[in-house]
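Interim report to the steering committee. The following record documents the input for Fusicoccadiene synthase (370 residues).
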Amino acid sequence: MTQQSFIRNSIPLPRHTYEGEEYFCRFAPRIHRDARLSDAGSWQCQVDFLKSSNDARAGADRNKDVHSYAVGCINPVVGNFTALCACEALSDRLALTTYLVEYAYIHDDVIEYSEKKDESHLQKANEQLMEGLTLEGDKSRGPKSKDHVQRRQLQAKMVMELMEVDKEQAKETLRLWKEMSDVFVQIRDMKFTVLDDYLKFRVVDAGCPWTMSLLCFSMDFKLTREEEKQTADITSAAYDSWVLVNDYFSWEKEWSNYQSNGATGVVANSVFLFMKWHSIEKEEGKEMLRKEIISREDKYCSLKDDFLAKGAATEKTQQWLELLDLVTAGNFAWSMTTARYRAGAPDVYPALWKHCADKESDTESLGRPI
């Protein structure tokens, strides 16, 4: 008997917004009916983070000529990242979910565009951005600066609201967030010789397990341990394809940053690895990546079809596979069109910032619920 779809809160994304040569994904994206709530969550996070901290404002000013700096989920072409990937979220959890994803994007940029790029400073910046996103409380000693207090207030707000909604899922999300932040710095110093080894780390670095934990929170959805085990290989194949899609569309931005930094070190991107491993130019490396994405998506679909053909899928595991399809499509459409990756793409962030530029701070927003 065919299981009933769990589609309730989303509509198909208009085809004209994403169809074209660059959209070589086989799945069709959908978007949440209340997508405006995602944009509201994104913008509140931007105000809370960047307008309540002198350090944050200094970083934004220093990087004002970097077109993608602090560009998060909002995308005027296809819609907000979370509205696409969490298109079946409960409406009352959509803004909070997006707020957390937006913070993660800002976190990445604060590290990526740090004024001091040696490992000790990057580790310190990473710790400051994550120190309050645990259940362990404040372990720091000595007097606290105003920036420190406000940063901790912001982090505490996220933790508190997550815990109030779903304590157990919140704990898992926070655990995976810390795991992601730890790998984010480590991966830049690692040497890889085969793609699968790279993907094991890159999947965590890109936040795939964390993102899915958060999307499950947004939907009040949870697999049993046995169901997770049954679908683990399929899930892993989906994660691999998402990471490679991210590499594909973010490549030009990352290559430009690499050149600006003196072309030293490595780029955590599979195009860079292909260039190194096969002694090829970047154009060939990107074409090789395109073929790899198609191959990995084929593998995902094959594993999924084999699993379903056995007839042992529960209602929850079938819904999980449907969710993976939706995220595959949403991530692809968003990554292809976002100003975060693509220079010259439509971008609403400058206009949003201009709207509140007359205010040096907005600390009152930290006290407002998400």
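The chain has a mean pLDDT of 89. The committee is asked to note this result when reviewing the revised timeline.
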